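User: Sequence in, structure out. Go.
Assistant: Echoing your sequence, followed by the structure tokens.
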Amino acid sequence: MSSPWRKSIPATERASRHLLPFFLALVLLSAAVYLFYVVFHQKGPCGIVFAYLGVFILIGLVWAGWQAYKILSLMQASARLELQDAPPAIGGRLKALVWLPAAAAMAGHAKVEFLCMRDGDGDRDAPNRFSTGKLWSVRHEVPVRIEGGSAVAEFVSEIPTGFPPSGKWDSGSDDDSEDEHIIGWQVRVSAVVGAEPVEQRFDLDVLRHRVPQAQLAPQAAQSPVEWLSDFAALALILTNLVPVYMVLKGRADVASIAYLYWAENLVIAGYMFLRVLLAARGDVADKIGGVFFFALWLGGRVYLLGQDSDRHPAESPLGI
């Protein structure tokens, strides 16, 4: 007898999602401190400049501290949603186990909200049939038990008909100001341990139709490409550390780094050309026109920035 269908979904907010903001905060803080040091050694009437740089230093400290706190707290609090029975689909049902940190078991029960939202806004009810907001939601209060060193809550919820599945949705109405909307389904779990709330969110892919039991795999594994979002953030951080290392080692100057980041515009342009050409909407004439317009717009900006760098290859506003 085959094992029942299951799929594990990690929490929407993970520690890796805060690595890139943490790196950007460190860059802002480092740049502000360095500029403060440069201006200080100029020994000029720089009181206003000191004030501005002091504000940026404070912003960098607060931003980096907050991101570091989120990373550490999320690394210690693992959570996941384990889908059971069948993939969630319109007209079907959602049967799942919620795994929370063991401390959540002290609450005795948890509140589970299952909702459908439009354009990523699930914190308010959609005021009309086109605007962003929550389209539908249902709440459950379920007991929490300890199992395997974690707090576990089990719930079952029906998925109503009459709502679109996950993904892009076109209303097809002339009254709608947007061509497409993004429909998302989400599970939100909350429990109160003492005075501290424990909250987790999980994004679901809800299918259009129910999948027959005969078509289900014995064990549906997690998508092998879901880790790419975390890998991309780490790769971006490590890649941007290379020019910093080159400058510190004296192997690059300000002009070469400026040219390096200027060249990123060309990479972005090539990527945008591919997106336009491979888009599922529009005919060939629309795509050619879009590529031509984008080439003129971005090409002019890239050319002017490159010409400005040629005229002032090694100058900076502070004379460094």
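User: And one key feature?
Assistant: Confidence is low (pLDDT under 50) at residues 215-225, 313-320.
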